[in-house]
Amino acid sequence: MTQPIGNVRLKAARQHAGYASQQALADALTRAAPQLGPGHLEISDRQIRRWESATPPWPRADHQRLLVHVLQLPIEELGFTPPWDVSVAGPDAAAAARAPMPRNSSRAPLPIAKSRGVIQPSTVAGDYAAITVSYRRLYASVLPTHLHPPVIEHTRLGAHLLGETEGVGYTIVATALAEALLLAGRIEFFDLRQPDDADATFVRALQAAGEADDALLGSAILAHAAFVPGWAGRGDEYADQMRAARTYARRAPASAEFLAWLDAVEAECETISGHFREALRLIEHAESVLAADGEHASPDWFTWFSPVRLAAFKGNTQLKAGHLPQADETLTAALTNSTTADDKQRTVILGDLAAVAAAQHNPEVACGYAEQALQQLAITWYATGMHRILEVRKALQPWAEQDCVQALDDQLYGWQATLSSLQR
After folding, report:
1. What does the pLDDT look like over 25-40, one tens digit per residue?
2. Are 140 and 341 in contact (CB under 8 A)?
């Protein structure tokens, strides 16, 4: 079985947690020791290097407690092989490893078990990857509550297959599994508004990308993970993850679109933190990167960004910064240039246009945009889009007695819309 050199799972968990260097993790473990009872323990970067090596030693009990506490993952999911590993523990342990995972959990370690002597045919890897591509396409139109469960089951299958493939097939399965986990995390974060679940899923996605040694996919996962603290306004955390994402992107042939997207992600996080000037600087840089183009093409899985999406990022930042005429112009152009591939994003654009109109004290126009967004949401549900509409409705409260606002309420809180929203 071909695997990258080193304990990529521990490295992925360290970087996801915001510790860019081995020394940074060592310092964090040292600081945590007095809180957990062992007293003063000096953890060195040399110890971290041993744990991130190709043959990491099984940590002693007090070190295990520290790793679990700081990285917020079970020790078995950090790339360590216990002395009682199923490959040497006999048939009972092997049978336990083959037991199915809990149906309500997407947090299985990667991979679940070693080969156990079962090697799948060479066609299995390509078949698994083809199913991942199908789920990628389904995301554009299938309800997230319908799509999420089979995607999670697909990732569980991929985790099993990692233990039953080797060579090129192993890399193909690991890459497809990383993409599937990224898709699951995107659904959890953007569509279901479950940031904690998404954060855990992104860790596993990064572990799978590490198994595949795919730096660009790792960069995409890290940038998505930055949204979790970014949307919560935790600046230090998303800044660390964005630095890691840019570092990974430099290791791979990244396209202009991909590099511009990294700018856009960071700009959105800066916008939420109220750093509008920096956000607009990042967006201007993204625009110049797109205009210059580049020699590298984007990978097939990079489907969530385009000039229209960048304009939507920019319009939202201008809105939050109070640049209302500029936001109106930017968002109107984005709406005009959007295609069917932007159906989910269109609800966000319409919501931001409604917010611009509400801020300009024009409730009728705001309600018109909000109603268009609700009509689109009835076709392609997107929790982020609904969140925008609910924020607009709060802004429209001073005009609550006007007919246009009450008509909007009739759509927003009708029986079907309310039940549908609760179900989703």
Report:
1. 999 888 888 877 656 7
2. yes
